[in-house]
Amino acid sequence: MKRFIIPFILCIILLMVAFYLKPITFKVASILENEPSVIVQPKNEYYRPYDFEFVQRTEDYTPYSYQELLNIIYSMLNNGWEKFTFYCPKEYSTCIDDMEEISQDNVLLTHINNFVHPYNNFENIITSYYDSGEVTIEIEKLYSKDDIARLNSKVDSLTNQIITNDMDTETKIKTIHDYIINQTKYDTIRNEENDSPYHSNTAIGPLFEGYAICSGYADAMELFLEKFGLKSFKVASSLHIWNSVYLDNEWKQLDLTWDDPITSTKEDYLYYKYFLVDASNLSSLDTDTNQHEYDQTVYLELK
User: Fold this and answer.
1) Which CATH entry fits the domain spanning 145-302: 3.30.530, 3.10.620, 1.25.40, 3.30.750?
2) Which strand (E) or helix (H) includes residue 3?
3) What is the pTM of this model?
4) Residue 129, Cβ neighbours under 10 Å: how many?
């Protein structure tokens, strides 16, 4: 009996060695070549299947230029990942320095954030980088899973209630524009004190609490533009944020905040001054505050 057991055990050992040898060999080779493998996760359901002039989707996570670093960050956010590690190649000698510069530029990161679905937006982003070339990006998302469930239910419910099949796209946008403004007041508390009892900086504020600042108006509108299957993004200046939507082969601007003005009498008004306007008209419409002066090197679609 022993004569059969020993060969049997040897066969099992040989099979296990054959099974594990290839991945072990691959791992050792990667380490020796200093080319660690990148773990790519599935995209989430809020992934946007399109590119912009400033940033583009990529599936090549080995960067060889500053632009490719921007594309990796955009792709990570657009894919809905909360943590991602990639590696700078030896050929890109300034990769870590460039990544450090990008990670410390909050304005740049906010611009990239504006091109992804609101549910994939970050609230906080932390980047770790090492001399070995390893870069790890971790994000804390702006919207929780509970927030998303509530908002999706609200968007579906409102769409069923106030949007009809005979409406054209512009009428659908106008209907949502009017609803959000009529149900929302500008949150002056957050604007003045940088704090508020309301979630007015997100879509929760206007759609559930009746208060918003510009980012809340923009996110709420963005959710419906997504619902209608329209290509869109948010545009940020140094003081303000609004929506840009691709309609009839043109980029049109929507600014619900400025179409819902604050008045000294506290009366409610509904304007269409910033409803589906050309970007070239923004400066002439806003001559007092210049809050619509955006970075034309970022929002290239609006030129």
Assistant:
1) 3.10.620
2) helix 2-33
3) 0.86
4) 18
